[in-house]
Automatic annotation (TrEMBL):
This is GNAT family N-acetyltransferase. Pfam families: Acetyltransf_6. Its EC number is 2.3.1.-. The lineage of its organism: Bacteria, Pseudomonadati, Pseudomonadota, Betaproteobacteria, Burkholderiales. Keywords: Acyltransferase, Transferase. GO terms for molecular function: acyltransferase activity.
Amino acid sequence: MNETTHRTRRYDIITDEAQMRALQPEWDALWMRAQGYYYQSFSYCWLAWQHVSKPHGRMLKCIVCREDGQLVMIWPLETVKRALWTYLVPLGPEGGDYTSVLVADDASAPALIEGAWNMARRRCGADFIHMPYVRETLDLHKLVSRERRVLFAEPHQASAARLRGQGTWDEYCRSLGTLFGKRPGSFVKRLSKEGIVAVRVVDPADEGETASIIEWMFNCKRSWSDRVGKRSVWLDSPEFERFLGRLIYSPDVPSMARLIVVTLNEAPVAGIIVSLGNPWASAIFAGYDPYYGRCCPGLIAVEECVKWAFNNGFDLDFGVGAERFKAYWARGEASTAWTTQIVNSHWGMLAIRARRFARALAARASGPADTATTGPDSALASRR
């Protein structure tokens, strides 16, 4: 499918994986030029398609734009069938990454993003459009938020540590204050009372060790999830687990991440996966052994992740979440990202009206009740 909006500007929707693969050289060049995040890279999107989206039967909808033949914008999306309705979502696993358009930050960016949004609405055949974690400073957020048929819009706190240009590591640490009454390095000293503590970056080419530690991290994360009563779909997804391993090493595309492991007497007690930076690195996934929870091994892994990013000349994005350690390393700086879902078709509106009618019947059958609601479509507002 294609659509031409100017004599030299052309939008296309890539639906074939061979065409997507052919974009790699231009995609890589744009990603470097635009200083894209790891989830906008070709490596990430190709691995996500091969190991997560395609096995689940999703349909590729990668919107691209060229000006005078040069690739200037990429927005990787996909469609998901749920019952009788089609949802348009970002390409990739539902693990908490932001949503944004890969485009150079120049004067033409707002128009390019608006063109991509119009293509998404009009040409992707979606009944609903689900946009998770869109930073409110982005042009994309402005476009999404002014749509008339918004089902829900949920804000999330996001934190990121600006590390470049902060002098030495010791100087940066002195500017932080304390976390739970402790300064950087203190948690390692506490854990050292239990035995020999070591921290290392796993060799990306050692696929066996990488897979073993990631499996261990997932088991730790599931145990934590059961204790606190939180469970995400991706936590029980073997496809997502394999995908994380492929981010660290794949024979098909360049590596996009590293695995940092904290060991006690040579056994893992915490691990964290961090992306390479461009210049922003991202903390992707972490797990720790709850047996040593009093020694805070998870906080040691986070500290080592920050130090790794610092030493490699990257800033570090922690993603969404109001955890105290994120605000600490970001020195209190926070932003807001929004998860928004809109109705995009008459067929989608029919689903909303049917649900409203069903709720009204149920309320009438149960007798008098408070009719106040948090929103007209709260039944559809649950996260995927």
